[in-house]
Structures are given as C-alpha cells and as structure tokens.
Amino acid sequence: MLADVIELLICPVCGSDLDFAEEKSLLCDRGHTFDIARQGYVGLQSGGAGKITGDSAEMISARAEFLDAGHFQPISAAVCDAVGAVATVVEVGAGTGHYLAAVLDGAEGSRGIGIDVSKAAARRVARAHPRLGSVVADVWQGLPIRASAVDAVTCVFSPRNAGELRRVLSPEGVLVVVTPTARHQQELVPALGLIGVDENKARRLGDSLAGRFEQADRRVVEFVMSLDHASVEALVAMGPSARHTTDAPRRTAVAQLPDTVEVTASVTVGTYRAL
Ligand SMILES: C[S@@+](CC[C@H](N)C(=O)[O-])C[C@H]1O[C@@H](n2cnc3c(N)ncnc32)[C@H](O)[C@@H]1O
Ligand SMILES: [Zn+2]
User: Fold this and answer.
1) What CA–CA distance (Å, rounded) separates 58 from 47?
2) Ligand 1, atom 7: closest residue by C-alpha
3) Fewer C-beta neighbours within 10 Å, C or N terminus of the chain?
4) What burial letters (b/e) apply to 162-189, b meaning 16+ CB within 10 Å?
5) Please, which pLDDT band fits residue 199 given cuts at 50, 70 and 90?
6) In total, how many domains does the chain have?
C-alpha cells in the first residue's frame, strides 16, 4: 500500500515531502495535492498526465494472462537472483507488477514502488502485492522518489532514464535491466510479421548507462516455451507489435500455426552498480 512507501515519495512539482491529506490524496509541504485513485494508485506527474500514455488496458491484461501462466518464470527467477534480498525496490515500467511482486516475496519485510505511465498498469500494480505502492509517472519527466532512497531498481523490458535511476539508487544500490536478445520470439517474427529485436539494442543500453553505472554481471537467460494459440495471441497482444498489427489478420496467421508452437525466450539480465 502507498502507506508503506510514502516516506520514499516526493512531490513531482517541487520535490518536497509528501504525506496523506486525508485517505484520498497526498499533499506536499508546499501545498501541491495528488489524488489517490479508487483502485489505490496515485498519479505523481507535474502538470498532470502527459502525452505518453503507456500500454493500453488490452496490452496489460494480455501481459497478465501470459505472465500468470508462468511462461516467463525463468526470467522472473533471474531477476530475483540479481536483485537479492533488499529492503526497498522500485520497478520502473512495472506493467502488471509481476516481477516486483516476485522480488518482494523473496525478501521478508521489504517494500516496493511500481512506477508506470499507464493507468491500466497502475491499477494492476496496486493489487500485485500488499507491500508495494503503485504510482503513475513518466520516467522521462523524472521519478517522484527521494534521492539515494532505494536499494534496487528493476527495468524489465521498459524504458530507462539513466540519470534518474542513478539519482534514486543508494550508493550501494543495484540496477537490474532485462532486455530481449535478437533471438527473443524469433520463431514468431516471420510467421506473424512481428517487429524483431533491434540488434543494436545492447550497445545502446551500454551507451545510455555509461558514465553513471558499471556492469557488475551479465547473464543470458534463454529457454524454449511450448505455447498454445491462446498464449501466442497473448504474447503478441502484450508486446510492441500489438500497436501495429490488427486483430483479424493476426488471428488468421496464428490459426495457421501448429497447435503447439515452440517459441524461444531470450533475454539479457544485466546487473549494474552506480559509479
Ligand atoms: C514492455 S512493458 C514491460 C512491463 C513489465 N516490466 C513486464 O515486463 O511485464 C513496458 C511498460 O513500460 C511502461 N512505460 C512505457 N513508457 C513509459 C514511461 N515513459 N514512463 C513509465 N512507464 C512507461 C508501459 O506502460 C509498460 O507497462
Ligand atoms: Zn510540491
């Protein structure tokens, strides 16, 4: 709940401390207020909602269906391993809160903040785990989190604002970044006309973190999933291709696949320490 993490949050407008005004809003020392939604999340954005709206409700529910089925369990386990048992953790671009909940489950008494710019995501995150607070914010506008306040930040398939990640991490803190390799979902790319993974992604990630972080560890996690058609549909609907392919042609293409499709999952789990 937000009460677990309120002392880690700051006003997105002026950076001062936040506290509960009543049950329904947060108030900063200088009088800026932010409504707490009925579903338990709070929007902490300076100037209200911006242009970036993040993943749609359909994408988030497809993601929940796919992750709840356990298909990415080895990725979840690798994230938990990389983070370890920490007291405070932030997931940036939290989606459904799946990975954040797994990390919190692995560390008794820990608490977490799930940040996402999508309200549909924030609604899910709010009920993903009892020891987390769900916050709507755009990482590119800054994280509404106190400097040096958290022990770990995770970015799983999500955007990274290196300056802000560095600012909120404690000096001993750890940043864990999961990015797809070029082999991720490779079987589905030609069959369904999906967007492939950019080969230069790893280099760009290194460039964006350079000067602020050094890599402490790097693991490739690769495995094959046996997916039925419903799972393939969910996998497509939760990813970037959902925005570019329309439902009907995609369903036709999926219907032509074998009943069970072997699909590679391949990601890099990078662990970084602040410089
Ligand atoms: C590919 S999803 C990954 C979600 C989750 N980490 C997972 O792996 O299940 C990317 C997430 O980042 C969010 N996102 C995109 N742009 C963002 C931004 N500028 N600030 C915060 N979140 C953002 C999206 O709404 C989406 O939930
Ligand atoms: Zn303020």
Assistant:
1) 26
2) 95
3) C
4) bebbbbbbbeebbbbbbbbbeebbbbbb
5) low
6) 1
| pLDDT value at 87 more than 90 | yes
Q: How far is the CA of 12 from the centre of ligand 2 (A)?
A: 7
From CA 66, how far away is CA 107, in angstroms rounded?
A: 24
Q: Give the CA diameter of the chain.
A: 61
Ligand 1, pocket residues at CB < 6 Å: 52, 54-55, 63, 93-96, 98-99, 115-118, 121, 138-140, 156-159
Domain holding 169: CATH number? Answer: 3.40.50.150
The residue range of the domain holding 136 is 2-274
The rounded mean pLDDT for the chain is 93
pTM beyond 0.90: the answer is yes
Helix 57-68 and helix 98-105, axial crossing angle in degrees, nearest 10: 40
